[in-house]
Design brief:
By secondary structure, the chain is of the alpha/beta class. The protein is 37% helix and 16% strand. It has 16 helices and twelve strands.
């Protein structure tokens, strides 16, 4: 070790001086429905010793350091200076004015006997009034909504909420993770191209500026990291990317990678690595929670469909393997079925072919719990984005692609959707920040 630099056989990694996670971390979620309240409840239960952080890389994941024969594999939370769960305070916004306990009961994800021991803590989390416009989410409405002179006024009201929450809860830092419903599909328009155009649009109530974009703008203005867990256009516009760079704020997204798409990012890399061909991949989903109701609207579904459909193409690279994947027929369906509630069923029929073009089939029926899969992602993203902020990172955090269906990437780069490559990138980023060599699996690696 010399002057903060580790010198290896072939590589040099400079250890960064990351600010320690002192004080409380406020995690704010636009949206206090099934995903958010499941995240709150699970984290509180873990802090009280009532549950284990299953599914959370930050809490249960190990990271290997150095050559295999050294067997150095500390927990990630012991390797990098993450905020501890005891220092987390939750808050959020929602157009429905139920407190977190009431919202969790209505969501029906967690059973009452899991909520009763943490009822007091959950009831204390009350939603701030939301920036909400039913034109963007047709199948949802509620009374707890902000009113303002224009969209800039709404953004300023959100900033005031952030400041008040931070002060009232004695927080040292904040991070925001979008857990609200999917907005209607939208293409980038002129108002999204530059920061100047976007700020003019806020003042002039430009109809192309959605609520999620207002939240993102407010967060960036206050220097708060922002992660987008939904597939709609949000912080991934040229204007807001420019603003995040200018304000030295980390951003990432989009669309939490949970049920069916998680399976695709596990299976598709396997097919490609063994050079097995694909003729078709038909996917359908039935779910009945608030998300299912929102996605019953064609415009909101369009946002989700675009996010889901892009995964396979980016993994399989049909332009490089035309004989295997050029004629792939990929179809995605989402159906609202109220009796299913949050226990989504994802059904896949996969037609593959192998040697001498002989056909084979794989069928998957994933009876998953969407919010149970999403909650640890919310926690991880909040902790990692806070870490990035303390490490003075800014702009798009591509190393967090591991968590998203449609990962944001720097301009000109295609997203990497292979789950295993994404995990390697995430862990190597942490290694390099801490002055360790990246793992390349060459020689004794």
């Amino acid at each position: 070790m010399h002057n903060g630099i580790n010198i290896g056989a072939n590589k040099v990694s400079e250890k960064k001086i990351i600010k320690k996670a002192k004080g409380k971390l406020g995690i704010l979620t636009p949206g206090m429905g099934a995903v958010a309240t499941t995240t709150y409840a699970g984290t509180i239960a873990i802090k009280k010793g009532l549950a284990k952080p299953i599914g959370s890389l930050t809490q249960m994941g190990h990271i290997r350091l150095g050559d295999r024969n050294k067997d150095q594999q500390p927990l990630i939370k012991d390797f990098v200076p993450l905020a501890t769960l005891d220092d987390i305070v939750f808050g959020g916004w929602d157009p429905i004015d139920d407190n977190a306990y009431e919202a969790a009961i209505k969501a029906g994800v967690l059973e009452t006997h899991h909520l009763l021991p943490i009822r007091e803590e959950m009831e204390a989390i009350k939603p701030m009034s939301a920036v909400f416009d039913q034109r963007w989410i047709k199948n949802l409405d509620g009374p707890n909504v902000k009113k303002g002179l224009n969209k800039l006024d709404l953004a300023e009201q959100l900033m005031a909420d952030m400041e008040k929450f931070k002060k009232d809860n004695n927080c040292d830092r904040l991070v925001i993770v979008w857990c609200a419903s999917t907005e209607a599909h939208q293409e980038i328009q002129d108002v999204h191209m530059t920061l100047e155009a976007f700020e003019d649009g806020l003042k002039n109530n430009d109809p192309a500026i959605s609520p999620s974009q207002i939240y993102a703008y407010a967060a960036i203005t206050k220097g708060i990291p922002f992660a987008n867990g939904a597939p709609n256009l949000s912080v991934d516009t040229p204007a807001l990317i420019e603003y995040a760079e200018q304000q030295n704020v980390p951003i990432c997204g989009k669309d939490f990678k949970t049920g069916q798409t998680l399976m695709k990012t596990i299976l598709a890399p396997g097919f490609k690595s063994r050079l097995l061909g694909l003729n078709g991949w038909f996917s359908t989903n039935i779910l009945g929670n608030r998300d299912g109701e929102v996605l019953d609207d064609p415009e909101s579904f369009k946002s989700k469909e675009v996010s889901k459909l892009g995964v396979l193409e980016s993994i399989l690279q049909p332009e490089k393997y035309p004989e295997l994947y050029d004629d792939l027929y990929h179809k995605v369906r989402i159906n609202y079925y109220p009796p299913r509630r949050d226990n989504k069923e994802g059904w896949d029929n996969i037609d593959i072919f192998g040697w001498m073009h002989y056909p084979m089939q794989i069928k998957i029926d994933f009876l998953c719990r969407d919010s149970i899969l999403a909650a640890p992602l919310v926690l991880d993203l909040a902790l990692f984005m806070d870490l990035a902020s303390r490490n003075q990172e800014k702009g798009i955090q591509e190393w967090l692609s591991f968590y998203f269906k449609s990962p944001q990437t720097p301009k000109g780069l295609k997203p990497e959707n292979d789950l295993f490559i994404q995990q390697t990138k995430l862990k190597n980023t942490l290694r390099m920040w801490m002055g360790e060599e990246p793992i390349t699996h060459v020689d004794n690696n």
